[in-house]
Amino acid sequence: MNPDVQRLFHIAAKKERLVIGLMSGTSLDGLDIALCRISGHGLQTHVELLQFTTVAYDAVFRNNIKSIFSKKEIDFEQLCVLHPWIALQHARMINDCLQQWKISNAAIDLIASHGQTVFHAPKNLHPSDNFGNATLQIGDGDHLAVNTGIITISDFRQKHIAAGGEGAPLAVYGDYLMFSKKNEDRVLLNIGGIANFTYLPGSMDNAAIFSTDTGPGNTMMDAVMQQHFNNKPFDAGAAVAKQGTINQQLLAALKDHDFFQLPFPKTTGPELFNTDYLLQALHQSSTTNISWPDTMATLNRFTAETIADAIIKTTPHPTHIFTSGGGMHNPLLIQHLHDLLPGYSFNTTSSLHINPDAKEAVLFAVLANECICGEGNVIQHGIKGMPNVAMGKISFPH
Ligand SMILES: Nc1ncnc2c1ncn2[C@@H]1O[C@H](COP(=O)(O)OP(=O)(O)O)[C@@H](O)[C@H]1O
Ligand SMILES: [Mg+2]
Q1: How far apart are alpha carbons 365 and 47 in whole angstroms?
Q2: What gap in Å lies between CA 358 and CA 25, rounded to an integer?
Q3: Minimal CA–CA distance to 97: which of 37, 159, 41, 53?
Q4: Is omega for the bond preceding 201 within 30 degrees of 0, making it cis?
Q5: 30, 113, 196, 348: which has the highest count of C-beta atoms within 10 A?
Q6: Are strands 186-191 and 194-200 parallel, antiparallel or unpaired?
């Protein structure tokens, strides 16, 4: 028997496992590395977050990804060489972290790698009836396994699509396993580049659970900061947006898109919500002469309103909202959400014992645990748009 198969068998049978969850979203800010101790599986999953860090990407890394990221036309050779290169960078970051944390690679049971999304194309974003849902994450799992010596589970989204989903949001699975609570309706809201939420009914009725993207999180605000504010990566503390005034004409034009009329659940990406989208709205509303701070103030409100609209439209209210992702550090955005959702209670996932910056990475660690130790049916009675399959591909180091 291949010794790695034997090792995997042993890992699957262990009482608890050390799993490193990796997440790099559409914000291209850095690699989130979450070291988790996980026991059990399914609704008995128990997760303890032992270590967490975000290794910031430098300009070289960011520009390399940006050269092919969510673009219809790219240099194909660049895509090809980045697939292993990103994995090698991620492997180096993991090895450095483990050294800093004084943990040997041999002590880690699994890596759960999301990879870097370079294109997300659900049917609602591409015109051809001949093709189905599609998404592409790069940063090859074999390279991670060989360069860390750790069995790696990667490329989670393909199985989801193969089984009938859109490949996103995958957060619903981990949210369901970790945060469902009897008799309490909960909304788990993650504000990354794109914003999404999972609704977990206190009735524990699986048929009522769902997860959806709502539209942009930080992605359009980040793009404006990078283009018009000296390449600043984001609007830290909403300092710029706070100086501006919301422009109602622009706001209405931003919200005037078919995406917001599509039924829930749905997914999207920076393939749609980008600077072209903004330019079109500026022209449509004849507001091309407004200041960049006014544009930022309006984009900030746009994110908040589209999140609040989606929550109000689809969940009983008021509910308990638990936030995560970088957007929760944007005080103006959070203030807007409080104003738009009166009566709702707001907490971060810290109150559920998961560091909100680490949440997405932890969710992938849980998916990897489910892939190896689950019984193949993550959600026993099925959730709308969420196929009941174990996700991830297995890469052995040897
Ligand atoms: N202090 C802050 N003030 C305002 N925005 C912030 C702050 N910290 C992080 N962010 C926002 O969060 C984004 C990163 O969020 P993250 O959850 O990592 O997204 P992704 O999953 O897309 O990588 C940044 O690009 C930025 O827009
Ligand atoms: Mg990030």
Answers
A1: 9
A2: 12
A3: 53
A4: no
A5: 113
A6: antiparallel
pTM over 0.70: yes
**Ligand 1 atom 14: residue of nearest CA:** 326
Residue ranges around ligand 1 (CB below 6 Å): 25-27, 29, 192-193, 218, 222, 234-238, 325-327, 329-330, 360
CA of 218 to the centre of ligand 1 (A): 7
| Integer Cα distance of 297 and 305 in angstroms | 12
Q: Report the candidate in 275, 349, 257, 265 with the shortest Cα–Cα distance to residue 52.
A: 349
With residues binned 3-state (H G I as helix, E B as strand, rest as coil), the percentages for the chain, rounded to 5, are 45, 20, 35
The one-letter amino acid at 87: A
Tokens of 311: 């929550």
Q: How far apart are CA 197 and CA 213, in angstroms?
A: 7
Taking Cα atoms as reference points, which of 176, 210, 160 lies closest to residue 44?
A: 176
Structural domains present in the chain: 3-170+364-395 (3.30.420.40), 171-352 (3.30.420.40)
